[in-house]
Amino acid sequence: MTEVILFGLFAAVALAGAVVMLTARNPVYSAMGLLVVMLSISVFYVMLNAHFVAAVQLLVYAGAVMTLFLFVIMMIGVDTKEDNAETIPFQRWITFVVAGGLAAVIILAGRQAWITGNEAFGTPDLNGTIETVADALFGNWTIAFLSTVFLLTIAALGTIALALFGPTAVGSGETEEGA
Amino acid sequence: MTVTVAWYMVFAAVLFSMGAAGVLLRRNALVMFMSIELMLNSVNLTFVAAGSEMGLIEGQVAALFVMVVAAAEVTVGLAILVAVFRRRSTANVDTLSELKG
Fold first, then answer.
1. What is the CATH number of the domain that holds A74?
2. Which domain holds residue B82?
């Protein structure tokens, strides 16, 4: 019963955060809404016995990624509010219909596979500690893990290249060195 | 009444759709990126929930890999956004319409 209460509470909090992220005019409020969603999802990871993933979720998403987002919001400026004008006619209603249809299709398509009976899941022998995750990560999935090293290196190199050889600031007086 | 895997799946589907709605609805490229992060997070939740249902640790391993890819995507995406902002002084995607016929 505690699990049901926890699930309901944090699902409501996460949905409220997502609504704030979607509707806020100020990007900082959107970032805060996304942060609330990520914290709630890490609670779900703990409920699913995925302790290591929950810790990584807090460190990487709620820590690093959100800090990066806030940093870029600070650089680009929080005073740039969006206008409400719709460039495509009925864009908002079409969006609601498309998103609602997407949710309905996902839920209908997955219904067969998800509803597996009333027994509680989360087998006690599957405990997502660092040890069990590392056993899989450095056992079966070593090649995939090593290839993520290349991915991250290439991403870092691309970021540096964009920063060094990208367009120069408007009106900064520096010469344009190509894009 | 216990929490079954279907609860997590329905919740993740709703979050995913809200992220998709954010990508379609918002003009600010930063908020569009946040919506993509929301979609990736909801998919991560389905991975972990399905792995827990099946008793496989691979669900959590897949979630970790998605996190790595999302981190790389955010790094490059935000760098592109800053480059666009330095050239156009805006993060509004509606103003980037040079290729419009």
1. 1.20.120.1200
2. 5-91
In a domain, B37, yes or no: yes
Residue A130, min C-alpha distance to chain B (Å): 11
Which of residues A80, A97, A121 is at a domain's end?
Answer: A80
What tens digit of pLDDT does each residue of B67-91 get? 999 999 999 999 888 888 888 777 7
Interchain contact, B64 vs A53, CB within 8 Å: yes
- Would you call A18 and B87 a contact, using CB atoms and an 8 Å cutoff? no
Q: Report how many domains make up chain A.
A: 2
Interface residue of B16, B23, B42, B45 to substitute, partner A, most A CBs within 10 Å: B45
CATH number reported for the structural domain that contains residue B23 in this entry: 1.10.287.3510
Predicted confidence (pLDDT) per residue in B9-61, tens digit = 889 999 999 999 999 888 888 899 999 999 999 999 999 988 888 788 888 99
Q: Answer yes or no: pTM beyond 0.90.
A: no
**Which chain B residues have a beta carbon less than 8 Å from that of A167?**
83, 86-87
Q: What is the DSSP string of chain B?
A: ----HHHHHHHHHHHHHHHHHHHHH--BHHHHHHHHHHHHHHHHHHHHHHHHHHT-THHHHHHHHHHHHHHHHHHHHHHHHHHHHHHHS--BGGG--TT--
CB pair distance less than 8 Å for A44 and B45: yes
A50, part of any domain? yes
Contacts of residue B86 in chain A, CB cutoff 8 Å? 166-170
Dihedral of alpha carbons A36, A37, A42, A46, sign: positive
Residue of B nearest to A83 (CA): B27
Is position A112 within any domain? no
